[in-house]
Structures are given as C-alpha cells and as structure tokens.
Amino acid sequence: MELYLDSGNLEEIKEVAGSGVLNGVTTNPTLVLKGGMDFKTLIRSVVSVLKDAKIRGFTVSAEVTAEKAEDMVQQGLALSKIDSHVIVKVPITSEGVKAIAILAQKKVRTNATLCFSANQALLVAKAGAYIVSPFIGRLDDAGQSGVELIEEIREIYDTFGFKTKIIAASIRSTKDVKESALAGADIATVPLKIFKQLYVHPLTTLGLKKFNADWARYNELR
Known about the structure:
There is one protein chain. It is built from 11 helices and 8 strands. The chain is 54% helix and 17% strand. α1 packs parallel to α3, α5 (94-105) runs parallel beside α6 and α8 (146-160) packs parallel to α9. It has helices at residues 10-17, 29-35, 39-52, 69-80, 94-105, 118-127, 136-141, 146-160, 174-183, 192-197, 202-221; strands at residues 2-6, 24-26, 59-63, 86-91, 110-115, 131-134, 165-168, 187-190. An 8-stranded parallel β-barrel has the order 1-2-3-4-5-6-7-8, surrounded by 6 helices. The protein has a single domain, classed as TIM Barrel (Alpha-Beta Barrel). It is of the alpha/beta class.
C-alpha cells in the first residue's frame, strides 16, 4: 500500500519527503487555507519538493472548487497543466461525475473525493476516475464503518475489473491505516501526526533503551 501525506503545509511535506516511504501528497481547500500559501504556488512547490526527493511516480492532488461540470473541467485542465504529476480532485456530485468523465476523455487523471458509499465509488470508476477517496474517518464519526466501505469498493472493483485506485482518506489513527491496508486500499493518505505515529511502538522504544544501556555497560567494562 502506498502512503501519501495529507497536508497543505510545505514544511510538513519537506519533513516527510526524505523518509523513503512517501508516495505522494493530497491537499484540499481546508488544508490550503491552513497552509497560508497561494494555491497554485503551493502545488508547484510541493511538486518541486517531491521531485527533489527523487520519489518515483508520485502524485499531488489539487482540488477544484467550481460546482458546474463545465467549470470543474476548466479548473481541472488548468491544474493539470501545472505539472504532469498533478491529479485533479473532483467531488462526487452529479456534476462532478460528469466532469470526471470529460477529464478522463482528455487524459487528465482525477481523484474522486468525498466518497461515502459503494454506489458513488461505482459511478466514478465507470466515469474513469484514477483514484477514489472514501472518507473513512467521517463515516466512523457518523456511526458507520469506513473500513467496511473500503472492503465493499474493493470487491466491486475486483469483480468488474475497474482500475480505479482506492485511497483511504480522513484517517484518524494508525489503526485506520492498518485496517485500510487489510481491507485492500491501494493508498492511505494521512496527516503528519499519524504519519509519525506509524514508526512508534512502546516495545521498540524499550528494546532500544535496553540495547543502548547494555552497550554503554559493555564499553565501561572494556
């Protein structure tokens, strides 16, 4: 499973870019607002950081803000021209699905965002979306199972041979990452806090502490 950083903060992205495990970055209007940079400047900068880190095959998702399909397409085309690594995020509405289909015909890759049902995932796969983003954390918050949705989408895509990738979004914990991987997600996009927590286990910390203490004792005895 690939790992993306969900962030609009360039310093966070620089921090993780050299980790050796990052495959891409996702942004959205909320994250861009928090990051405080001009939108297109941010996207160009993120692409530059990931190129400098020599990450192969990375993608950077940039979201349209229009509501009509025609306007979404125009925004999407403009975003796709920033760099070949940019993927256009489009919300799953009737207009959004229409825009995804048009963009697919124009060979523009899309990330169908705000997915909350298997039916929505089916529609965007038929429209030609490159990625679908089920928001599992928000489903869990609403008393539904986000991981169960990933399992349903995985079964549908495998049954009918859809190539659309599944990216687990709205990740709330390291457990979400693990369960998304087990459910068959192709990608998980996580905030920096969760990304850092993936490295941590208390037994690793205790084991390293003991090894270091024993090594210090060994040197004292020499």
